[in-house]
Write a structure and sequence with these properties.
The protein has about 200 residues and is mainly alpha-helical. It is about 80% helix and about 5% strand. A two-stranded antiparallel sheet has the order 1-2.
Length: about 200
């Protein structure tokens, strides 16, 4: 049984690492193509860059967790292990937030670009979208940093597990901006398109 478990664990890590590499290459290609192709230089496509960048950050989580699994807590490595655990969790939380808010931003952007097409083309420039995304990422970095600083403790059981990182109110807020807001915007957009 042990041999089977070891083989399954090894195969799982191989699959996860292959998935990570393929994901990283794909996301890097998305970013390169959007910036190199002039016809793709549109404000809305910068949101795709934000999504790809958040996926790139997210894909570092699995290798970090693998490293944590291999590290032993003895030999004076506890301090390094805890810091790496915090860093891995920070990456996981930040990339998840960045991904979700980028999707929400994309829904808002598409609604405005169709509902107010003329004003959108005049006012929404590449630089303004870059500023919006930059501010969004800074806000999310600050949000996750504060959550990690004031709302988390490491459980030391040879497993990287942070307790109390997300409280029930954050779950409700997350559900609102993850599902409710994009759903309302998308429904409103379809309703508007069908009415004209």
């Amino acid at each position: 049984a042990l041999d089977f478990e070891d083989e399954f664990s090894t195969a799982w890590h191989v699959v996860r690492n292959a998935e990570t590499i393929i994901g990283q290459v794909g996301n890097i290609l998305v970013i390169v193509v959007i910036f190199k192709e002039k016809r793709l230089h549109a404000p809305g496509n910068l949101i795709l860059v934000s999504l790809a960048a958040s996926d790139i950050v997210s894909n570092f989580h699995a290798p970090l967790m693998l490293i944590l699994d291999q590290l032993k807590l003895g030999g004076g490595k506890l301090d390094i292990w805890i810091k790496l655990c915090y860093f891995a969790t920070y990456i996981h939380l930040f990339s998840g937030n960045a991904n979700v808010f980028s999707v929400c931003l994309s829904a808002i952007d598409r609604y405005i670009s169709i509902r107010y097409a003329i004003k959108y083309r005049i006012k929404m420039t590449m630089n303004r979208m870059k500023l919006i995304i930059t501010v969004l990422w800074i806000i999310l970095m600050t949000k996750v940093t504060l959550e990690m600083k004031f709302g988390s403790t490491v459980r030391i059981e040879n497993i990287c597990l942070l307790e109390n990182v997300i409280d029930p109110m954050q779950f409700k807020f997350g559900a609102i901006h993850t599902f409710v807001v994009p759903s309302i915007i998308t429904t409103s957009l379809y309703a508007y398109v069908m009415s004209v």
